[in-house]
Amino acid sequence: MSSLTASELAAALAARAAAVIPGGVNSGQRRVPGLEELVITATSGATFTDAEGRVYTDYHAAFGPPLLGHNDPDVDAAVAATGRSVDLMGVGVTPVEIELAERLVEAVPSVEKVLLTATGTEATFHALRVARTVTGRRHVIKFQGCYHGWHDAVAMNVISPAEKVGSKDPLSAGILPEVLDATIVVPFNDADAVERALSEHDVAAIILEPIPHNIGAVLPVPGFLERLRSLATEHGTVLVFDEVITGFRHGLGGYQAVCGVTPDLTTLGKAMANGWPVSALGGKAELMDLFSTTPGRPAFFAGTFNGHPATTAAALATVEKLRREPVHEHVFRLGERARTGLEALYARLGVPAVVSGFGSVFVTYFLEGPVVSYDDLLRNDVDLFVGYRRELMREGIFELPLNLKRSHVSYAHTDDDVDRLLEATEVAVTRYLGTRA
Ligand code: PLP
Q1: Which amino acid residue places its CA nearest to atom 12 of ligand 1?
Q2: Torsional sign, CA 210, 212, 214, 216
Q3: Residues at CB less than 6 angstroms from ligand 1
Q4: 346 is catalytic
Q5: The one catalytic residue among 142, 270, 321, 405
Q6: Residue 170 has what DSSP assignment?
């Protein structure tokens, strides 16, 4: 019998996946053109290994969770230890849930009380449900370019084609038109548009990523978040910061602790447990106490896996490590080095580029700045954005080759990694531009 080569083995695995998993992947966001045969067999620190045995330095980071690096030993040990002593009971509460909630209340300015669930989507779903409960109102405001998960009220207008900007751009079929109608989409950084929407409609909630990282990193202009805060207060609307990406990654207190604007509700997820499935919804006690976890209260809240002890232990271990070790100092420093290095590189190459980001996050848009709203990103040179990232893979570096996707450094990345990133980016961009000269 002839033995298969590594690449034949990888192709065979991908074919098996495609035969029994629709599209061969378990999330629509993992189906990346050109990477149909990518099968991952291992992760470690700042790297992952594919089924062909190739090792990549990972800047995709699963869309953000492994802030400490993949397979962090402290987090994984906490999961194993807790898993040995207590697993899911589905009644009452466990000490680890209490301890995590206490840590979150201490760290995140808006969080007076907090509920745990498993995914960011669940957290934003419940945020909007309780906002509608307390206000008795129908509409919610979201921003073009922000993503808050896959539920019907928010699954729209993320990376929209130019012709869809300004109208509803649902991510999916099967959403009731009434639900689409009840979500008002406005441009990010346009507080006047928010004010108009608030005066024309009965708005229960304004939900936003304080930095829209689902389109890279569009930074809020000075005063924008402050103005949203005062408009929400003035109109009796619930202000929700979706900090599923920015929480933990930009600081233990989330971006709200950095910018000094305190929302009514906050959603957390992703980096919260360094890759284990945990999310949270927290905020003002008067809102959080409306959930049915308090008997007789009107906003139903449930979930078989909510507060799972092992994954909650992962979150607690992550929080403790963020407090104990200079994680943010490290990732902020490397992020800054990457951004300034890339800026210098593109200036030297004469390639029009805007390098953006915050803390550990960086992204290069290939366009003339400034970048203030999603409309500006329609000028991005998509082919170059995706093309150089495919070339980067040949250099052993992985930045997701999809338009507008951000990259992340973790605590496991090193200065050498950033040096290699800069060298490899120069090679990849130059080679890609050569192919279309
Ligand atoms: N909110 C934001 C800002 C996100 O980026 C995401 C996922 O990418 C979500 C919510 C949904 O989280 P999940 O995929 O865990 O349901």
Answers
A1: 120
A2: negative
A3: 63, 119-121, 124, 147-149, 209, 214, 242, 244-245, 269
A4: no
A5: 270
A6: B
**Most distant CA pair in the chain, distance:** 75
303: left (phi over 0), alpha (psi -120 to 50) or beta: left
pLDDT at 2: 58
Q: Which two structure tokens, joined as six digits, stand for 287?
A: 């809102």
The list of the chain residues with pLDDT below 70 reads 1-2
72 is catalytic: no
Locate the ligand 1 atom nearest the alpha carbon of residue 209 and give its number: 3
How far is the C-alpha of 111 from the C-alpha of 169, rounded, in Å?
32
Backbone φ and ψ of 367, nearest 5°:
-165, 170
Structure tokens at 314: 């992962």
Q: Is 147 a catalytic residue?
A: yes
Residue 62: DSSP 8-state: G
Q: Which residue spans of the chain are classified as CATH 3.90.1150.10?
A: 39-70+326-436
CA-wise closest residue to 278 among 240, 317, 321: 317
Q: Of 232, 216, 143, 153, give the one whose Cα is nearest residue 185.
A: 143
| Catalytic residue, candidates 50, 242, 264, 376 | 242
CATH class of 73-324: alpha beta
Model confidence pLDDT, tens digit, residues 60-107: 999 999 999 999 999 999 999 999 999 999 999 999 999 999 999 999
Pairing of strands 203-208, 397-398: unpaired
CATH architecture of structural domain 39-70+326-436: Alpha-Beta Complex (3.90)
> What is the tens place of the pLDDT at every residue in 349-401?
999 999 999 999 999 999 999 999 999 999 999 999 999 999 999 999 999 99
The order of strands in the sheet holding 40-44 is: 40-44, 47-50, 55-58, 397-398
Where does CATH 3.40.640.10 sit in the chain? 73-324
pLDDT number for residue 3: 84
- How remote is the CA of residue 63 from the centroid of ligand 1, in Å? 9
